[in-house]
């Protein structure tokens, strides 16, 4: 039996994984300054994407998102050496990433209908480009530009964690329900 990987799935998951790592570093105000950091982020994204693609055959989408989340937490624990809650930070980053990706999918409808594009590969490339643009716009927001301070504040961390978990889980759950897989 020959196993065929779906290029659309790979593009989508790779985009989401890269965005999760970039959003995580942005909201923590960690600068990606070296080639080595980019290689680590890309490698982690590739490994998470391949794992997702292989397990897609055997697992439902919510479980795949959980597996991706766990892998992202493992990789982030190697990348980030500060004393912060990687779980909460990753949950917030995933929620922001899924919002960006959903907005990109909605925005993509306009050029899709105007240019009459029926190729799924082109659709995902267009969504990826729009996602990158939205991430750039997101990173220029005044409150985000220098990171989210509440993620580093250890005093009020417990309350923030509870709120962040609730919001992030709701966003990811809605994305899972309405996402097109």
Would you summarize the structure shown here?
The chain has helices spanning 7-27, 35-55, 61-79, 86-115, 120-139, 142-145, 157-178. It has 181 residues and is an all-alpha fold.
Task: Report the strand count.
Answer: 0
β content, as a range? under 5%
Q: Counting H and I runs of at least 4 residues, what is the number of helices?
A: 7
Q: What fraction, in percent, of the residue positions are helical?
A: over 70%
Shape: globular
CA radius of gyration: 17 Å
Termini separation comes to 23 Å
Low-confidence stretches: none
Q: What structural class do you assign from the helix and strand content?
A: mainly alpha
Helix and strand element order: HHHHHHH
Q: Characterize the largest beta sheet: strand count, sense, and whether it forms a barrel.
A: none
Mean pLDDT: 78
Structure description:
The chain is mainly α and 181 residues long. It is built from seven helices and no strands. The mean pLDDT is 78.
Map the helices and strands.
Elements: H1 7-27, H2 35-55, H3 61-79, H4 86-115, H5 120-139, H6 142-145, H7 157-178
Helix pairs in contact: 1-2, 1-4, 1-5, 2-3, 3-4, 4-5, 4-7
Keywords for this structure?
181 residues, 0% strand, 7 helices, mainly alpha, 76% helix
């Amino acid at each position: 039996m020959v196993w065929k990987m779906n290029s659309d799935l790979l593009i989508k998951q790779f985009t989401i994984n890269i965005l999760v790592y970039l959003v995580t570093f942005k909201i923590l105000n960690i600068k990606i300054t070296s080639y080595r950091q980019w290689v680590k982020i890309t490698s982690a994204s590739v490994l998470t994407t391949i794992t997702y693609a292989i397990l897609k055959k055997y697992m439902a989408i919510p479980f795949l998102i959980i597996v991706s989340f766990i892998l992202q937490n493992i990789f982030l624990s190697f990348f980030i050496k500060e004393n912060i809650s990687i779980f909460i930070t990753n949950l917030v980053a995933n929620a922001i990433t899924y919002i960006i990706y959903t907005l990109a999918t909605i925005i993509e409808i306009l050029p899709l209908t105007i240019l009459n594009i029926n190729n799924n590969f082109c659709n995902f490339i267009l969504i990826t480009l729009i996602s990158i643009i939205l991430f750039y716009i997101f990173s220029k927001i005044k409150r985000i530009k220098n990171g989210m301070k509440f993620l580093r504040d250890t005093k009020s961390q417990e309350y923030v964690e509870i709120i962040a978990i609730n919001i992030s889980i709701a966003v990811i759950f809605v994305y899972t329900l309405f996402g097109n897989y």
